[in-house]
Amino acid sequence: MSVATTRKDFDSSRFLAGIARGIAGALLFALPMFMTMEMWELGFYMDRSRLFFLLIVNIPLLVILSDRIGFERTSTWRQAIRDASIAYGLGVLGSALILMAMGVLKYDQSPHEIIGIIAIQAIPASIGAMLGRSQLGGQSDGGDDAKEGDSDDPVHERETSYAGELFLMAVGALFLNLNVAPTEEMILLSYKMTPWHGLLMIAASLAVMHGFVYALSFKGSHDLAEGMPSWHAFLRFTLPGYVIAGLISAYCLWTFHRTDDIGSTQILMAVVVLSFPGAIGAAAARLIL
To answer: Cα(139)–Cα(47) distance, rounded to whole angstroms?
Structure first.
């Protein structure tokens, strides 16, 4: 009885398939950051206390994300922590191998530089490894088997609470912000934009967020409950989601030293600029996770 229970709780073939999808996910979702010069340079000069804090923040994020879309169905937090650790390990290993293959990491570099570059790249790579579970998940062959496979999929079966929806939006905003927050263009745009441009950007971000989830009928989009006015969903999900995207944007800009030595107006404008891709990431996370 215990052997059967153990096999039911841990399917090694499915787990290994999840590992393979995790590696593919790390490559697919983090490749743009592997090939971005600003991300390499962050490993040289980024304040180590800020980098360490970002690495620590990524741990509970991966654990909670693993509980929803881990490499296999998880029933305990211990299993979720195991999957999160594996995703982090895949992120570190994948980052090191790819950066070495591209010539970014070299043997004559100091350990300080090598560790910094790998650490900063491992964060989006680990999230990508975890996202590979939901985006690259396979289906069983055959009608009944396919249905059974779908029913075993925690991504599609598990209901998401309101707090869970907000968490997924935060993950989506963070992942997309990691792509663009290190770039100089965020600060350049903040200087080019006027307050009117900023207001227009905020309105566009809110419209895109709401449209992605409720108006454009994408796969995975949400339908309003019968009799529920559209403004209710806007106030309950879209507006809080944009606030979350703004907070994540501000944190990313601070972490990557993009708020150092610039005025408060430019910081606010940079947050508004970065919140646009952050809002798209937040909305997309509700559709695909």
So the answer is: 44
80 lies in a domain? yes
Amino acid at 168: L
Nearest residue to 283 via CA among 208, 231, 199, 198: 208
Helices 48-69 and 162-180 cross at an angle (nearest 10°) of 130
Count structural domains, the chain.
2
Start-end of H helices in the chain:
2-9, 12-34, 37-45, 48-69, 77-101, 111-135, 143-151, 154-157, 162-180, 185-192, 195-210, 230-233, 239-255, 264-288
Q: Which range marks the domain in which residue 23 is found?
A: 14-137
The DSSP output letter for 104 is S
Q: What are the pLDDT digits (tens) for 80-114? A: 888 889 889 999 988 998 999 998 898 888 888 89
- 122, amino acid identity: A
Same domain assignment for residues 283 and 201: yes
Give the model's confidence band at 11: pLDDT under 50 very low, under 70 low, under 90 confident, else very high. low
In tens, the pLDDT along 225-244 reads: 555 666 677 888 889 999 99
283 lies in the same domain as 168: yes
| Distance in Å from the first CA to the final CA of the chain | 35
Residue 142 belongs to some domain of the structure? no
Q: Which helix (H) or strand (E) holds 46?
A: none
